TrEMBL record:
GO terms for biological process: lipoprotein localization to outer membrane; protein localization to outer membrane. SMART domains: AAA. This is ABC transporter ATP-binding protein. GO terms for cellular component: membrane protein complex; plasma membrane. Residues 5-223 form the ABC transporter domain. Belongs to the ABC transporter superfamily. Macrolide exporter (TC 3.A.1.122) family. PROSITE patterns: ABC_TRANSPORTER_1, ABC_TRANSPORTER_2. Keywords: ATP-binding, Cell inner membrane, Cell membrane, Membrane, Nucleotide-binding, Transport. The keyword Nucleotide-binding applies. Gene3D superfamilies: P-loop containing nucleotide triphosphate hydrolases.
């Protein structure tokens, strides 16, 4: 099975040179296979966001390697990392982070234009993605006109807009009430499965984690 992401011996300590260093990751190994959906479950403060930032090329480890699609990105400069992030990764956070002055469709079109996709193809992809998450009728609405669950479904579409190789999600339904969270999570899983996407999804929610292919914890913490 081919790997989309491999972390090898990744370590990270915050405030290394200060009076109170915090060692968060120590020699972490992790891999995500193509088409695999992996749940990352660990208590608050265990380092889930740190790991996602490193896997998402938003932060660098103190030591270890980050290999994305077979390419070692560890030593790359900012520009190459930004490029790899834009082309190969999709992000979902607890809060939607949609642009308030743009419609749902435009929020999905814009990242594609930034990636040099033509206007027409970008609009078609946005329409298709919105349709898949049951929001075709909301395409022209702005985020403030949508419910929390709808906003998050648009954010899923935006994360998939550029057909990334890997989706990284940090508590993707953590901001929603339990019932909406459950419903919206099902939509996310269906979308990921239909598109054959690989994903690493951090969650506190064990019931959601059980629906993924594999559940991993972080060293020193119980699942
Ligand atoms: N920039 C920073 N400087 C110092 N310490 C930090 C920094 N960022 C995070 N930490 C510490 O590192 C640890 C791991 O943080 P992280 O946000 O990765 O955890 P988490 O598992 O995502 O937690 P949560 O589930 O609460 O979001 C925490 O103890 C946090 O206080």
């Amino acid at each position: 099975m081919s790997e989309v992401l491999r972390l090898e011996g990744v370590s990270k300590t915050y405030g290394k040179d200060g009076p109170a260093p915090v060692e968060v990751l120590h020699g972490l190994d992790l891999s995500v296979a193509r088409g695999e959906v992996v749940a990352l479950v660990a208590p608050s403060g265990a380092g889930k966001s740190t790991l996602l930032h490193i896997a998402g090329l938003l932060d660098t480890p103190d030591s270890g390697r980050v290999v994305l699609n077979g390419r070692d990105l560890t030593g790359l400069g900012d520009r190459a990392r930004t490029e790899a992030r834009r082309q190969e990764l999709g992000f979902i956070y607890q809060f939607h982070h949609l642009l308030p002055e743009f419609s749902a469709a435009e929020n999905i079109i814009l990242p594609q234009l930034a990636n040099a996709t033509g206007q027409r193809a970008a609009a078609e992809r946005a329409a298709d993605l919105l349709d898949r998450v049951g929001l075709a009728h909301r395409a022209d609405h702005r985020p403030a006109q949508l419910s929390g669950g709808e906003q998050q479904r648009v954010a899923f579409c935006r994360a998939l807009a550029n057909a990334p190789a890997l989706l990284l999600a940090d508590e993707p339904t953590g901001n929603l009430d339990p019932e909406t969270s459950d419903r919206v999570f099902k939509v996310l899983m269906a979308l990921v499965r239909e598109t054959g996407l690989s994903a690493l999804i951090a969650t506190h929610n064990h019931a959601l984690a059980e629906r993924m292919d594999r559940v991993i914890g972080l060293a020193g913490t119980a699942l």
